[in-house]
């Protein structure tokens, strides 16, 4: 590439930010700035004047990016775009990956595309990891809840662990609910009564 | 009856209530719908997901479908506003330092005096005001700029408008990023509760009947799915009517406060839904009747004249052709859908789909399909009226 493209990455988590920088550098983009603290985002971006901004779809400060797009419009510069208005497929892929990219200024789509592709791959991998971590955490929490409910049934009815679980399962099936929901309801009820 | 599942986006604000209530109290289920309520972290995320078809319908800032249809916000997409979900419900506030400076300039205080408040607001600081709004194309911004512009004291282009996500608004005041904030509840009351800001005006004091949020969907989707659109509009209209029945408000607070929805303490929701506000930390609350309206006084009717007003204001902000903006804005508003789908269930319909905005200073009975309908007031603070030539 003859001309360096300035990329701003908005990512509060330093580990994720580092991963994204690594990925972008591997792809040959060296002019990457990370903004971790999102206060005064519009002002900071205006000062940086990046060619491309990468931000997580779930970041509430995304709305502040709109400021940059509107401001640049007022100065009759090319409109800030969501990814690239001409490329639906690319836009879909970016959204599915949880990625937003705003292009301010005149940029050729063929230059944006490889950057985004790299970033999309990275974001996808990380969002998958994040989802797996969430799922693991949830499974652990669920197991604790079920164990507590089992213990309560064992004490109340003087039955063994297997029988207590069978009772939970039977109740869940007959009410068309999940075991975890029945266990949760039992704990809530007992909290109220004690 | 088979159930149609709709991906339904909302931003966690008190006025997302009609969609949440439609789902929770089974108004949607009665129409064969299941609303998959998807909470969005920002308006831009909600907008893009709707434009790209990941969401079927959304709770949206009233100016957004119009800005999107004009290609001014995000991916160019033709978006329809099927009905108004809520009228009014925003507040304007200032930092505690600003409030003190305004008092020094003769501000009488209180929560209902736009004419007497504009001067002290503009002269309080000897530098341009930094104004936090939730989105560049929001009723908050349009109302604020209309107020300041029509008070005739300053050119609105000298203001620094700073987009700030509502949940971060109180923090932005505390860290001296902004002097003024325009925001939907509960976030104004949060700033007061944290003792960083003071409320100076409800949005309704600027325009007494401002459409705040709308039910939005892609135009092509609306055209392709008339029966689903009808079912959805009926469910939402019933939820809105339920919400405007005073005895239901405590239960509404109960439902909205749940973690699956707004995940906020009851106290944060009380102000908007009960219409009682403490404008200052520790002050006794004052009543603001009709602070937030979901259904009464034809609140849900998507007037073409409201759309035209929004189109004209957006044209001024964005520097685009006014006639074109007004024309596109009127196409985005769908009173035709409203009449077709809600007429048969007995919702009262006005005789015309446009009116002179700002003409009603008192409630007034007008001709309607079921006899008469009480409208208004819809006055602007400066007594101006907005008329335009309909395109049809």
Automatic annotation (TrEMBL), chain A:
<feature type="domain" description="Response regulatory">
    <location>
        <begin position="6"/>
        <end position="120"/>
    </location>
</feature>
<dbReference type="GO" id="GO:0003723">
    <property type="term" value="F:RNA binding"/>
</dbReference>
<dbReference type="Pfam" id="PF03861">
    <property type="entry name" value="ANTAR"/>
</dbReference>
<dbReference type="InterPro" id="IPR011006">
    <property type="entry name" value="CheY-like_superfamily"/>
</dbReference>
<feature type="modified residue" description="4-aspartylphosphate">
    <location>
        <position position="56"/>
    </location>
</feature>
<dbReference type="InterPro" id="IPR008327">
    <property type="entry name" value="Sig_transdc_resp-reg_antiterm"/>
</dbReference>
<dbReference type="InterPro" id="IPR005561">
    <property type="entry name" value="ANTAR"/>
</dbReference>
<dbReference type="InterPro" id="IPR001789">
    <property type="entry name" value="Sig_transdc_resp-reg_receiver"/>
</dbReference>
<protein>
    <submittedName>
        <fullName>Two-component system response regulator</fullName>
    </submittedName>
</protein>
<dbReference type="InterPro" id="IPR036388">
    <property type="entry name" value="WH-like_DNA-bd_sf"/>
</dbReference>
<feature type="domain" description="ANTAR">
    <location>
        <begin position="126"/>
        <end position="187"/>
    </location>
</feature>
<keyword id="KW-0597">Phosphoprotein</keyword>
<dbReference type="GO" id="GO:0000160">
    <property type="term" value="P:phosphorelay signal transduction system"/>
</dbReference>
From TrEMBL, chain B:
<keyword id="KW-0997">Cell inner membrane</keyword>
<protein>
    <submittedName>
        <fullName>Nitrate transporter</fullName>
    </submittedName>
</protein>
<keyword id="KW-0472">Membrane</keyword>
<keyword id="KW-1003">Cell membrane</keyword>
<dbReference type="Pfam" id="PF13379">
    <property type="entry name" value="NMT1_2"/>
</dbReference>
<dbReference type="InterPro" id="IPR044527">
    <property type="entry name" value="NrtA/CpmA_ABC-bd_dom"/>
</dbReference>
<keyword id="KW-0813">Transport</keyword>
<dbReference type="GO" id="GO:0012505">
    <property type="term" value="C:endomembrane system"/>
</dbReference>
């Amino acid at each position: 590439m003859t001309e360096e493209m300035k990329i701003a990455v908005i990512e509060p988590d330093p580990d994720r930010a580092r991963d994204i920088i690594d990925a972008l550098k591997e792809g040959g983009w060296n002019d990457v700035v990370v903004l971790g603290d999102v206060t005064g985002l519009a002002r900071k971006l205006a000062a940086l004047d990046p060619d491309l901004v990468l931000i997580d779809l779930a970041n509430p400060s995304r709305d502040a990016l709109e400021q940059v797009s509107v401001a640049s419009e007022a100065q009759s510069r090319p409109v800030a775009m969501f990814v690239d208005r001409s490329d639906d497929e690319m836009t879909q892929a970016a959204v599915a990956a949880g990625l937003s990219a705003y292009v301010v200024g005149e940029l050729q789509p063929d230059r944006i595309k490889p950057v985004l592709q790299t970033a999309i791959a990275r974001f996808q991998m990380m969002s998958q990891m994040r989802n797996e971590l969430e799922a693991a955490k949830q499974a652990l929490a669920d197991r604790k809840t079920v164990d507590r409910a089992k213990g309560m049934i064992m004490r109340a009815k003087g039955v063994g662990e297997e029988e207590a679980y069978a009772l939970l399962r039977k109740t869940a099936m007959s009410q068309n609910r999940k075991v975890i929901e029945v266990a949760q309801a039992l704990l809530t009820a007992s909290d109220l009564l004690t | 009856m088979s159930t149609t599942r709709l991906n339904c986006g909302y931003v966690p604000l008190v006025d997302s209530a009609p969609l949440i209530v439609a789902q929770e109290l089974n108004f949607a289920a009665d129409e064969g719908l299941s609303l998959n309520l998807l909470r969005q972290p920002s308006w831009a995320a909600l907008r893009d997901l709707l434009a790209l078809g990941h969401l079927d319908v959304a709770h949206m800032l009233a100016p957004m479908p119009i800005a999107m249809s004009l290609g001014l916000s995000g991916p160019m997409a033709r978006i329809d506003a099927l009905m108004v979900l809520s009228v009014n419900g925003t507040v304007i506030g200032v930092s505690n330092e600003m409030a003190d400076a305004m008092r020094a300039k003769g501000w009488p205080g209180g929560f209902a005096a736009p004419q007497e408040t504009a001067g002290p607001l503009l002269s309080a600081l000897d530098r341009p005001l930094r104004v936090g709004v939730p989105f560049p194309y929001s009723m908050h911004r349009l109302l604020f700029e209309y107020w300041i512009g029509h008070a005739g004291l300053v050119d609105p282009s000298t203001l620094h408008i700073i987009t700030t996500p509502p949940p971060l608004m109180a923090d932005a005041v505390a860290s001296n990023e902004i002097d003024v904030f325009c925001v939907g509840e509960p976030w104004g009351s949060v700033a007061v509760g944290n003792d960083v800001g003071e409320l100076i005006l409800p949005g309704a004091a600027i325009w007494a009947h401002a459409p705040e949020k709308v039910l939005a969907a892609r135009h092509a989707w609306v055209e392709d799915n008339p029966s689903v659109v009808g079912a959805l509009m009926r469910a939402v209209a019933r939820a809105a009517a339920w919400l405007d029945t005073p005895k239901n408000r405590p239960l509404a607070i109960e439902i909205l406060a749940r973690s699956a929805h707004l995940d906020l303490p009851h106290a944060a929701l009380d102000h908007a839904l009960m219409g009682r506000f403490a404008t200052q930390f520790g002050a006794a609350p004052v009543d603001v009747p009709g602070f937030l309206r979901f259904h009464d006084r034809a609140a849900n009717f998507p007037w073409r004249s409201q759309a035209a007003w929004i189109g004209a204001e957006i044209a001024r902000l964005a520097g685009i052709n006014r006639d074109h903006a007004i024309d596109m804005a009127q196409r985005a508003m769908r009173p035709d859908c409203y009449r077709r789908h809600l007429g048969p269930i007995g919702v009262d319909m006005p005789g015309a789909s446009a009116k002179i905005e700002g003409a009603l200073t008192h409630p007034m009975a007008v001709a309607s399909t079921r006899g008469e309908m009480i409208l208004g007031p819809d006055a602007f603070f400066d007594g101006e009226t907005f008329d335009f030539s309909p395109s049809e």
